[in-house]
Design goal:
The protein is mainly α and 90 residues long. The protein contains 3 helices and 2 strands, in the order E-E-H-H-H. Helix 2 crosses helix 3.
């Protein structure tokens, strides 16, 4: 049976992640409160942040920044887009 959660981002019961994304308390919080769909939204947001800010994800400062943005994205008011971000046109 699929793991379901009340998604903090989408405000409804949805399919949850298959496993915690991190081996930490924060990973457990995400596992218990974030849907697969919301996690996919975060992955897209994270890619955009990495590109727009030209972050190197292996550096501690980039990792700290991304965790802060993730916390805000799921449990805060949503992470802000970079001021000069222009969404791609399809």
């Amino acid at each position: 049976m699929a793991h379901t959660v009340f998604c903090v981002r989408n405000k409804k019961e949805m399919e949850g992640l298959d496993e915690p994304p991190f081996d930490s308390e924060f990973g457990q919080k995400i596992f218990k409160n974030v849907s697969k769909a919301a996690w996919a939204e975060w992955v897209d947001r994270q890619k955009m942040l990495l590109n727009e800010y030209r972050l190197q994800p292996w550096t501690p400062s980039a990792q700290t920044f991304l965790v802060e943005q993730m916390e805000e994205f799921f449990f805060g008011s949503g992470s802000a887009l970079p001021s000069d971000f222009v969404p791609p046109s399809h």
